[in-house]
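Cross-posted from the bioinformatics board.
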Amino acid sequence: MNTRHLNTVWVVLLLATLATFAIGEAGDTLGITGPVAMLLLLAISIVKGRLVVLDFMGLRGVKFFWRSLLVGWLLLVSALIAVAYWIALK
Amino acid sequence: MPRNLGQIKAGRPHPGDTPDMDLAPPSPPPHGPASAPPGDLAIWFFILAELLAFGVFFAAYAFARARNVELFDTMQQTLDRQAGALNTVLLISGSACVARAVEAVGRARSATGARWLLAGIACGGGFLVVKGIEYADKFGAGINLSTNTFYMFYLSLTFFHFMHVILGMVILVALWFKTRQGAYGPADMNGIESGAAYWHMVDLVWIVLFPLVYVMR
């Protein structure tokens, strides 16, 4: 993994964090609330988590089995959070 | 073994060959997917066990919120979201520093690697300070585990993570000492890659925790 790629990943992660924070601070003003905000927040954390797994942990060049365990964890946890959120809406 | 070495030299190399560690270039370009992740296999089983525990905790939080939506959404407003965001920045930056350290050691630049590790330790220290201030603020306001269901989850979940940051920092300090001594290099990445993987796991967990506990409502 070259340094330029690692720096790019770092900047993307910072921008994604800013997006998460913005949804929290100004979600009402921006019209990003409720289920839309929830799905957006989960999508952002999946993108961030995937970058950490692939580029920081260095699993990008590793067999699918290992990547699927870590990224699968991220997807499963996100799905459970979404289901719980959906139940709360009812 | 001289006989094995002779076989390696005599044998015609082809893409499927596993390179001998001593003969391998500093960072060999992978021809196909590696069969095992970087670092020791044992650390990955440990990481998976940790992720499982955090995953159960996150699901428990989410389903507890489903039964107490009003309480959770009201109590979430009492959290310091700026501190949470700052801590996300610190953990992400700490993770980036450690990734740079591993990259530097992979190019036989131990001194550079040690400096990046030190930067990672500083980020981790920053996280502990910010979280400590948050805890002091909450405890000062008389909040504890039995205040309500939200705070029971908030305190136990974040403290469970807090302990992992401390363990991660202990690992980083050990890696820093050894890297300064030149204990790791392109041919011996196992230790630093294992420790780094654990630190990235601590970051990965917070990436889910921050939006879930501080933002989502």
